[in-house]
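Quality-control log, excerpt.
Job 1 of 2 completed; input and output follow.
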Amino acid sequence: MSTSLEIVPVQSPIEASIRPPGSKSLTNRAMLCAALARGRSTLHGALDSEDTRTMAEALEALGIALTADWDRGQIELEGCDGVLPANEATLHLRGSGTSFRFLTALVATGQGTFTLDGNSRMRERPIAPLTEALQTCGIAVDSQQGFPPVVVRASGLAGGRIALRGDLSSQYLSGLLMAAPAAMSPLKLSVEGPLVSAPYIEMTLSVMDAFGVKVTRSEAMTFDIAPQPYLARNYPIEPDASAASYFWAAAAITGGRVRVEGLTSDSLQGDVAFCDCLRQMGCSLEQDEGGTTVVGGPLEGITVDMRDFSDTVQTLAAVALFAKGTTTIEGVEHIRHKESDRIGDLARELRKLGADVKEMPGGMRITPTALGSATIETYDDHRMAMSLGLIGLRVPGIRILDPGCTAKTYPGFFDDLQAITASAQ
């Protein structure tokens, strides 16, 4: 893809239907559970992206037999029945935070020395809550003052009780939950303080259950897991709700009508809550067993705590530029540690457009003003590119730098955006 892409504004409201590719979060969780399972599993509807390929390559480096037909979205894995084949590996995990957190916990169940590293941004993202939790179970873990790279010298994951922070990422807990059935004795996991992105824990538990593992919840955020086998299965993966948010937002921004197939209020993914934000802002929703449609309407600013679906903060910020009144986003201090500083960097780019943005430690206030053309820096952050590209549907002269960074989770995003807007241009 070229080094920049200018978005072509639409001339009329968008009327379209789309099925986004499979969920990254579900694909990576299902791959890990299938890798630990007894027998051969097949995943259907899996996402083809840099993050999911990174996870697949890492599992292969750990000795898991894996065959992926990425064009068909099908992955077959021969599980290791809870015993990692490799006793030494160096895993290059690029910018995949999900892979890094999940695999750090996974290799702790093995026997041997494992090194995990990533790109320059990954080396700035905290891993201390997870490494400290593993150390309480007797695992020798070295990091760079709480940041990658990480070296795990594993001799099996002992049981016991682990308390860990939940205010930076829910992925630490998800990684430990999925690794726990391969521990040598029962493990009790509890969260200290608030937990961000809590719906992702429910997703993790659902995937574990689908692969035959039972988790007992003794309190709201305390989990007991006994050693037990994962069982192989065929597992269907629903479309990615974070990706869907861009198309629902396109309906809101253009006053159009966009249906996303395959996602309903019963989705395993918490990011479908983004639709409720749009409803509060003035859109209407139509839901049935096959999908969810957003119909745009006059938009009003809202105040919303997005702690539980923070991957859609940038998307809502784009919509807020076209609302009447101020939109306040709260509860998302943790997103400063994502692929970019999704508060500070986002505020900087919105101001380039002329928006009135007041940055707060845990969010921002966005007041619409007259918007102008701008070249948007994306910080190698796929969500910055996809969300701020939507502004160009209404504002001429919006150019997105490094549009290819969407390959992290959605390589075909700008092609799909062009497809759903073609009839309105």
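Job 2 of 2 completed; input and output follow.
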Amino acid sequence: MSVMQNKPTQPELTGACANSTRAHCAQRMARVRAHSLALAAPLSVEDQCIQSMPDASPTKWHLAHTSWFFEAVVLVPHLAGYKVFDARYFELFNSYYESLGPRHPRAQRGLLTRPSLADVHAYRAHVDAALHGFIGQAGEAAWQVAAPLIELGLHHEQQHQELIVTDILHALWCNPLLPAYLSAQAEPLCASHAQAAAHWLDMPGGIVPVGHGGGHFGFDNERPRHSVLLAPYRIAGALVTCGEYAQFMADGGYERPALWLSDGWAAVQTGRWKAPLYWIEPGDARAPQSHWQVFGLHGVRPLDAAAEVCNLSFYEAAAYAEWAGARLPTEFEWEAAFGAPGVTQMNGLAWQWTRSSYEPYPGFRPLAGAVGEYNGKFMVGQQVLRGSSRATPQGHSRPSYRNFFAPAARWQYSGLRLAQDMGTC
């Protein structure tokens, strides 16, 4: 694939807060902030303090960090006379912003039994009150600067809402009791989707535009919009299912090194992988049954062969594609296929691994100020995922969205869609 490079453009932040009334922005902020608390509501105080691995964070930390972001990026720089809730929180709840000061070690967030959950809720209320006051009373010049940062903060919080769900699921998985996050009667995070019949669709390729086109919010890593040259290809109209993945397993998929990338095979051996994360094999002492089961937000349930397979690493997705005589699509093939007739399940089920490394687009420039650290410095050693998942908040996805994780990551709702070169079909 060759890249048709456009003239670099100055990155910008846009969205509802930047392009609509202040009242609408305040209403949106209230909804987003309330949703974080709603996601935490089923959890005990103890649940919200736990950290099951360095890549995950406690629910309480997510609630505090998203408040810290608004405080550090919006309120302290732009609200004259703002009084911070507790200056010590700047170190406790900074994630990776070098320009904003020191940080508590990521792997030790689960040791923060203090501040208490009640203190964190009070912190959120303090920040919310200041934000609402700022939205209503800021001068127009200050508002024009701060409104795009508030919008960024809301999308940042939505990212952490998904992490609240996926991180606590991993923590509960580590508990021998396998407790459920949601009761059996609770509504699912999103509506069920009927499984589409497996089929291939021919895509013509050619010079196609990709990336964020403006007019609504997009992260800096989605810009600038540019053109790429795609060879003709085929893409699967639906996601790979649990039943299809079980056939890969039954055919020795986890025992055949020829199917795996070298690092992936090493991960299989080191982690003793035999199935996707959260699959429970027959006879497991934690949930003894004679059939495969899956641990999820509602606890342990029988494996649904028609459901999309998820909680896969990039390595597992690539190995399955090799076994199936196919490959993973590039992120640009995925984006070009979005909305094409017959291409289904692009959003709302599982993030979809692509064969694209997480790299800057031609002409990429980080945002000005501290938020310039948001995405650009992570553009190495990671793979791009496209779409969205069952845990993604409503309204947070779009065709140009670029999610990214290390190739061994399995605790996200990550699945796969197959592609083929047209000449090999």
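Post-run check on job 2. Residues 1-11, 190-194 have pLDDT under 50 and may be disordered.
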